[in-house]
Amino acid sequence: MDTHLVFFFLYLLAVVYFTGLVLLNSPAPIKIKEVYLYSGTLALIGCISEVAINSFCRAVFDSPLWIYQVTPVHGGDTSTFAFFQWSLYGYHLYYVQKKLQSFNFKHEEAIFVFALSIDALLLEIFVNLSSLFFLDTFIFYYLPGDIGHLTTIFVFPFYLLGGAILIGIFNRFLKDPLFFGTLSFSIAFIFVFLA
Questions:
Q1: Residue 78 CB burial class (10 angstroms; 0-12, 13-18, ≥19)
Q2: Which residues pair with 67 in a beta bridge?
Q3: Model confidence over 51-107: pLDDT tens digits?
Q4: 51 vs 191: CA distance, rounded Å
Q5: Under the phi-then-psi rule, with left for phi > 0, alpha for psi from -120 to 50, and beta for the rest, what region is 71?
Q6: How far apart (Å, rounded) are the C-alpha atoms in residues 62 and 54?
Q7: pLDDT digits over 22-62, tens only?
Q8: Cα–Cα distance between 46 and 99 in angstroms, integer?
Q9: Over the stretch 103-132, which tens digit does the pLDDT of each residue have?
Q10: Helix, strand, or coil here: 27?
Q11: How far is CA 16 from CA 89, 108, 121, 159, 162, in A?
Q12: Which sign does the torsion angle of CA 178, 170, 27, 18 carry?
């Protein structure tokens, strides 16, 4: 499973990179410090939010929204692979935000939040379908079956809220991307691997 997981990660990395090139329409220069910040921030926010959201759902609805099938930690609410998966999503969001900024939309932040929410649902479907090929299982299994257990519409409001929070975090963290990227990765690493 470990070798398959490494190949799966490399596959996802290649998909994110080439999707980013398509989004930007060229091999535009990448600001490594910003990519590092986006990746670290999502590793932190993603993993901690998964545990918080599933805990909320257990308390309110008596059931979690998902269970991680691959390298689960924190009772299946997140996984050690999620640390890398969320980092890749941060890398992807870097490209998404750069593309949206190129349009100079009037309400760019609101559009980013909505785009992130739709994008996250689509990427969950893509990741789970891809994991069936590489790992012969879902990475995470959604208990609501409204979208074939690949994702669920019930996470959409959480993505909207998370996107709104991320806008504020990115705006503040971009003032010192190396510091905040390192801080985020460090806390996420402790949370996922050492807790």
A1: buried
A2: 141
A3: 999 999 999 999 999 999 999 999 999 999 999 999 999 999 999 999 999 899 999
A4: 10
A5: left
A6: 10
A7: 888 866 678 999 999 999 999 999 999 999 999 999 999 99
A8: 22
A9: 999 999 999 999 999 999 999 999 999 999
A10: coil
A11: 8, 22, 15, 19, 20
A12: positive
Whether residue 80 contacts residue 192, with contact meaning beta carbons closer than 8 Å, is answered with yes
C-alpha 190/C-alpha 10 separation (Å) is 23
Burial class (CB in 10 A: 0-12, 13-18, 19+), 86: buried
pTM above 0.90, yes or no: yes
Name the one residue in this structure whose structure tokens are 């980092």: 87
Say if CB 68 and CB 47 are below 8 A apart: no
Terminal alpha carbon distance of the chain: 23
Note the maximum CA span of the chain. Answer: 48
